[in-house]
Each structure stands twice: as structure tokens, then as C-alpha cells.
Amino acid sequence: MNAVGRSSVWTIDRKDVITSVGADWDAFADENDASSLCGASVVGRSLFDFIAGEQTQRIYQWLLTRVRALDAPILVPFRCDSPDMRRRMRLEIRPLRNRGIEFRGVFLAADFRPYLQLLARNAPHSEPLLFSCSFCLRLRVSDREWIEAEDAVVRMGLLTREETPRLAYGVCPACNTSLRDRFDRMGEPHTTF
User: Fold this and answer.
1) Rounded CA separation 174/177 (Å)
2) Dihedral sign for Cα atoms in the order 138, 78, 54, 36
3) Pairing between strand 164-170 and 145-147?
4) Does the domain formed by 7-185 have CATH 3.10.350.10?
């Protein structure tokens, strides 16, 4: 699934319930230690069961509303990292008949990196929370600074701990500005998430 240009597809109905996943969905879940998220366990559930963070959910609700209202696709850059790989992707959100929506996550680039336990689903995590941007996956290390996970692990001394902080999700200022600018180009009024 990590090949550049490959894509993963899923669809939702008018009530935002997942109605189908692509043929490679289960393989991707397995590759990422997330076999509990296989197609059979996600189909029939709300998309929002799988989007962490109130701010991120608001953005996705707004995106879905715009795609349906404009009857036009929206493209959103994002990252979908694993503990040992950085993956830059593009999310294509397209309208379907009856107000359904198709999502297509397209792999743009993938780079290997040293393993980061912080990003492992099954690693022991503890308090306090560490905030990650839902789109670029940078981590907040201060009120004004968001940096790459590798740099945050070193700066915060997380390599020497048996447990790592639990991640919570939101949107960093840079991605918030980028998303607002993208919406402004679509003729939307200034949006606050």
C-alpha cells in the first residue's frame, strides 16, 4: 500500500455512515497494526467514529457539507504516517449520487525513518497528552511551536521512557491557515474551525 500513486477508497452515505471500502483496505489496516479496523468492522459505522479530535471533526463536517452543496470535489493534503514511515498523501473527497461521498487517499510520497514508538498503536501510552496535527502530523511542543515527530521525540526525551504520551488530535496553525486559504479560494467566507 505504500507505493506512490496507489490509492485507498471508501464511501459514505448521506448520513455519513461508511457504506464500502476498497479492496486494499484490509491489507492497509494489517500493515499498520490496525487489523481491528478491517472493512467488516468499519462498514455500517459513522465516519466520525474514526476521526479523532473535536476540531478535526468540525473541519470534516464542513468539508462534507461543502462537497455536497457545491457538487464538486475537494482535495486536501495530509499525512498518514506509520511508526517507521512518513507518508504524504492527498485526500480526494468527491460527491456521489444521493448525497453520498467517495474518499480516495492517494499516496504521493513515502520515506522510511527510524522507528517511533510514539506512533505505534499498540505501544504503552500514558498521560500527559501530546497534541498532533490531524493533517501534517507535527506535534505541539509549546504554545507556538509544532515540529516533526522525530524532532519532538528527541527534544522531549521520549526515547528514554518506557511509556510515551498519549496523542490527542487537533489542527496546527499552519494547516488551519492552509485549509482556510483553500476554502477562501473556493469563494467561501472566512472560516473558523
Assistant:
1) 5
2) negative
3) unpaired
4) no
Please state the φ and ψ torsions of residue 34, each to the nearest 5 degrees: -130, 45
**Distances from the Cα of 172 to the Cα of 121, 125, 167, 190, angstroms:** 22, 22, 14, 17
- pTM surpassing 0.70? yes
Cβ atoms < 10 Å from Cβ of 88: 18
Q: How far is CA 113 from CA 35, 137, 148, 154, 161, in A?
A: 23, 14, 12, 14, 20
SS3 call for 73: coil
Measured between its terminal Cα atoms, the distance across the chain in Å is 32
CB 30: neighbour CB atoms within 10 A?
13
- The angle formed by the CA atoms of residues 102, 5 and 108, to the nearest 5 degrees, is 90
Q: Which of 147, 80, 86, 81 is CA-nearest to residue 112? A: 86
**Residue pLDDT, tens place only, 72-120:** 999 999 998 888 889 899 999 999 999 999 999 998 999 998 888 888 7
Give me the residue label for grid cell 499498520: 32
* Torsion angle defined by CA atoms of residues 56, 59, 64 and 65, in that order, rounded to the nearest 10 degrees: 140
C-alpha closest to that of 105 among 16, 29, 176, 46: 29
Please tell me whether residue 170 adopts helix, strand or coil conformation: strand
Q: Where are the domains of the chain?
A: 7-185
